[in-house]
């Protein structure tokens, strides 16, 4: 007899078809797009997302570290995966045993891979973000000698804004890569794709926009939402004018109201920043969240929902651009902060 499993209180549905369509739209717009699937595909499930994109034709994937790469070794072809944080002595043996590509970020990493590495690599150039990468003053005539470089890449610092730094980075990238022998060049993340063809080169590396994020308004028409959050109603009750709602009484009822308490909170990644600001829906009726979001629970004004009862499910608004505006939290943080308690469904 099969073991009886508990019923979920919150659900997270990920639309893999929407992720694939977002990738296809970005691929068409930029000429050729890869996919940043680091951080568990921005919190949505790297194995499911990687397989869907691979089956759709994506052949360039980017993860942060070797542990993330290891999760994918039986899911997609190893030689399609680049490890952004590069190589070190501790991971050299593992890297040589697999076909993943290290992205070399420092002179030390270059020396390690030249002397002891096997196979192709990528190189990260720092064109102005001053994070990871080799900057122009570090370059010399023989720095890349003996390396089989697939992608020369850099990373934009402010592509979500209209600032002079964008063009300065692009020109710096052009100047640096003129003397480097590589198969392909890559500069653009999701936001930079919207800056135009001069930023696209041979390959773009969208991440946020694959998952429904819109870093620039120009992408709004081609990026679809990909996730839905649902929470189960645990209690429906009557409250009265003057009653205080939730921790610290941050909401005071101005009239008699019907409220519902649902199973979602900041432990699920629905953060306190949505207190007295977020919304949910039931039968297409908008329901405001009132009071402070707590660890496991939210409270909602359901006065305009006559048939609300325990065991109903609410759809919590988590459209990334709008949720970011309401909460003043970046779309990246909203995605990657989604908790582990959800029943995760893939469609």
Gross morphology: elongated
State the share of residues found in helices, binned by percent.
Answer: 10-25%
Average pLDDT rating: 97
Order of helices and strands: EHEHHEHEHEHEEEHEHEEEEEEEEHHE
Strand content: 15-25%
Characterize the biggest β-sheet. Answer: 8 strands, mixed
Q: Label the structural class.
A: alpha/beta
The tally of strands reads 18
Q: Determine the number of helices (DSSP H or I, runs of at least 4 residues).
A: 10
What Rg is obtained from the alpha carbons, in whole angstroms? 24 Å
Unreliable stretches covering 5 or more consecutive residues: none
Could you give the distance between the termini? 28 Å
Model description:
The structure is a single chain. With 347 residues, the chain is an alpha/beta fold. Helices cover 24% and strands 22% of the residues. It contains ten helices and 18 strands. Strands 1, 10, 13, 14, 15, 16, 17 and 18 form an eight-stranded mixed β-sheet that branches. A hairpin with a 5-residue loop joins strand 11 and strand 12. Helix 1 packs across helix 3. The protein is elongated.
Features:
347 residues, alpha/beta, 8-stranded mixed sheet, 8-stranded parallel sheet, 10 helices
């Amino acid at each position: 007899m099969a073991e009886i499993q508990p019923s979920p209180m919150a659900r997270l549905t990920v639309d893999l078809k929407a992720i694939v369509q977002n990738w296809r739209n970005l691929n068409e717009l930029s000429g050729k797009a890869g996919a940043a699937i680091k951080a568990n595909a921005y919190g949505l499930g790297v194995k499911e997302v990687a397989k869907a994109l691979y089956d759709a034709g994506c052949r360039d994937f980017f993860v942060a570290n070797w542990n993330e790469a290891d999760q994918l070794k039986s899911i997609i072809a190893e030689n399609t995966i680049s490890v952004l944080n590069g190589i070190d002595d501790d991971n050299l043996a593992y890297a040589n045993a697999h076909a993943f590509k290290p992205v070399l970020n420092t002179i030390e990493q270059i020396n390690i891979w030249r002397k002891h590495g096997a196979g192709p690599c990528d190189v990260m150039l720092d064109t102005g973000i001053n994070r990871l990468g080799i900057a122009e003053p570090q370059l010399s005539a023989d720095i890349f000698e003996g390396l089989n470089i697939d992608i020369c890449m850099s990373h934009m610092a402010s592509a979500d804004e209209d600032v002079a730094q964008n063009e300065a980075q692009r020109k710096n990238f052009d100047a640096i890569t003129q003397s480097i022998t590589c198969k392909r060049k890559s500069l653009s993340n999701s936001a930079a794709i919207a800056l135009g063809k001069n930023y696209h080169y041979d390959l773009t590396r969208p991440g946020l926009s694959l998952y429904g994020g819109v870093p620039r308004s120009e992408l709004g028409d081609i990026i679809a939402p990909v996730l839905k959050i649902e929470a189960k109603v645990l209690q429906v009750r009557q409250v009265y004018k003057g009653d205080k709602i939730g921790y610290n009484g941050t909401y005071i009822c101005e009239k008699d109201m019907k409220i519902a308490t649902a199973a979602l909170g900041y432990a699920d990644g629905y953060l306190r920043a949505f207190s007295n600001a977020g919304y949910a829906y039931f039968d297409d009726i908008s329901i405001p969240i009132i009071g402070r979001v707590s660890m496991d629970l939210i409270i909602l004004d359901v006065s305009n929902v006559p048939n609300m009862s325990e065991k109903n499910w609410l759809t919590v608004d988590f459209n990334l651009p709008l949720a970011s505006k309401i909460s003043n939290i970046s779309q990246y943080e909203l995605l990657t902060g989604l908790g582990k308690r959800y029943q995760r469904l893939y469609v």
